[in-house]
């Protein structure tokens, strides 16, 4: 289940359905990713074909990543059975 979203526009999209501040190209895939995160009970549940799920390394080793588009990723941490600190990042 989703407990917290860092990215302000992504949070507004999830809670209120507002799309302002999100790239229009991200909307469909963002919805799929957020729905999957909300249904997931472990990070590995996000290992969905096409999302390129992986754990990050070095100083971000406590976070996971799935592909949004191009270099952009939806990153998140995990606490018990909840996705937390969900963000959109280009960390490349």
UniProtKB/TrEMBL annotation:
SUPFAM superfamilies: RelE-like. Gene3D superfamilies: RelE-like. It comes from the Bacteria. This is Plasmid maintenance system killer protein. It comes from Roseitalea porphyridii.
């Amino acid at each position: 289940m989703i407990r917290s979203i860092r990215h302000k526009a992504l949070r507004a999209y999830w809670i209120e359905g507002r799309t302002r501040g999100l790239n229009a190209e991200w909307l469909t895939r963002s919805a799929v990713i957020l729905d999957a995160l909300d249904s997931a009970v472990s990070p590995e549940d996000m290992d969905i074909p096409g999302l390129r799920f992986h754990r990050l390394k070095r100083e971000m080793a406590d976070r996971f990543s799935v592909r949004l588009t191009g270099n952009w990723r939806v990153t998140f941490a995990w606490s018990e059975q909840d996705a937390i600190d969900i963000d959109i990042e280009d960390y490349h």
